[in-house]
Amino acid sequence: MNMELSLDGQTVPFEDGETLYEVARRHGEEVPTLCFDDRLEAFGGCRLCVVEVEGMGKPVASCTTTAQPGMVVRTMTDSLESHRKTLVDMVVSENPAKAHIDPLRGKASQELALLATRYGSDGTRFEGKQSGASRPDDPNPMILRDYDHCISCYRCVRVCEEVEGDFAISIASRGFQTQITTEFDGLLEDSDCTFCGQCIQTCPTGALADQRALAHQETPGEIKATRSICPYCGVGCSLDILTKGETIVGVQPAMDGPANEGALCVKGQFAWEWVQHPDRLKQPLVRKNGVLEPASWDEALDRAADGFRKVKGKHGRHAVYAVASGRAPH
Fold this sequence. Notes:
Blueprint: E1 4-7, E2 10-13, H1 20-26, E3 50-53, E4 60-61, E5 72-74, H2 78-94, H3 111-119, E6 143-145, H4 155-163, E7 169-172, E8 179-182, H5 198-202, E9 208-210, H6 211-214, E10 223-229, E11 238-244, E12 247-253, H7 266-270, E13 285-288, E14 291-294, H8 297-315
Parallel strand pairs: 1-5
Antiparallel strand pairs: 1-2, 3-4, 3-5, 6-9, 7-8, 10-11, 11-12, 13-14
Helix pairs in contact: 2-3
């Protein structure tokens, strides 16, 4: 069967099982969304990704509609753009001035801000009741729970369930009282949260953020992202180190990392400040007359090798034991 459809006037191929959203994105068409994350099952909640399909009476959510041969699809019409503007106006009105263009908050944190700019949404069109209640009382030093910025897209809850399998956070109430919460509305440290930070990276508004990174908002300089590998274990998780000048101001997982595919553990996500800690050792130390003193690498390695030789000479070769493991590279 010829797997092709018409997309905005162009005949394009697609693969069996692809959604219209995936087809459109692969062929360079810009279809907006606020509830979509490649790592999650398609949700179809925000309705921003709707497209027109000939023969269907109403626009359909492209993220949940499977492509079929012969479909005639339009992703950009005046009617669709009017529909999308109304939805963005409603979202921003519920959380006025809550859209962040701040890469320190997380990989997806600018999505709402960019859409608000695109559609000229300033929160006044449907101004009225607001939702969300932040948790400044949560003392954990890692995840900011700024739910005044929450738009109830549920991406944080779903990534915690579908990707991490922690089920640490959930949804309570409905309507304007909808709230992202933990069991019994408690603190994160008392929940099943492993502080992996995935909720931060999927949040499209910055309602969830790395508190350590936010502490560097006033650090001078432009943010630069440098791809690297997490040094904590042998898994080899890819990550992007955020810097301002010579100062590390945050870490974000690499969504295309072959070993981690956007995931990090609590150490990889949050324990980056040790790199520039004033107490960090910057050169080897050797003990001389009972006191640790700076030394060159050659001197330190020679001292270590001499120690092994002495142990072997005194106790035999079985007195020296080594552990080699992908989880213990150091």
